[in-house]
Amino acid sequence: MREEKKPPSARDHVVLLADDDLFIRTLLKRFLPETCYFIEVSSGEDVLKAYKEARPKIVFLDMHMPEQDGAQIVKDILECDPQAYVVMISADGSRENISSSVISGAKSFMMKPLDSKRIMQEYMKAIAA
Question: Quick one: DSSP state of residue 114?
Fold first, then answer.
């Protein structure tokens, strides 16, 4: 299920928020600039389709999405766009999850609860890339 707020303009940056938890998607939107054009998906099977349609500047991706594993989603995104900027997020900061994120090609791994400053840092890195 995808929700879109407003059509993008030249100054907007498209951000894909992929998390099955509405609260996390809402929190991410609060932490990011209002000028962003947000695309939200809550299912793993919708992430790649939304990515291909929108070509977002950055993806915030939950590691444990319904229907598909986050690490596999990252690989699929990078297969169609090797320059994609994907930030993996998870409540489980185990060494295995962090390692899986890095191996899959995510640019960064962030633990929940999310830190607003770190979210903005990743966003700024992505728009500078």
Answer: P
Residue 80: C-alpha distances to residues 18, 49, 58, 61 (Å): 17, 11, 15, 16
Is the C-alpha dihedral spanning 31, 21, 6, 48 positive or negative?
Answer: positive
Give this prediction's pTM.
Answer: 0.89
Which range of residues forms the domain containing residue 39? 3-128
The number of folded domains in the chain is 1
> How would you write the pLDDT of the chain (129 residues) with one tens digit per residue?
455 555 555 445 899 999 999 999 999 999 999 989 999 999 999 999 999 999 999 999 999 988 898 999 999 999 999 999 999 999 887 888 788 888 899 999 999 999 999 999 999 999 988
Residues 6+ apart with CB under 8 A from 117: none
Nearest of 39, 43, 38 to residue 62 by alpha carbon: 43
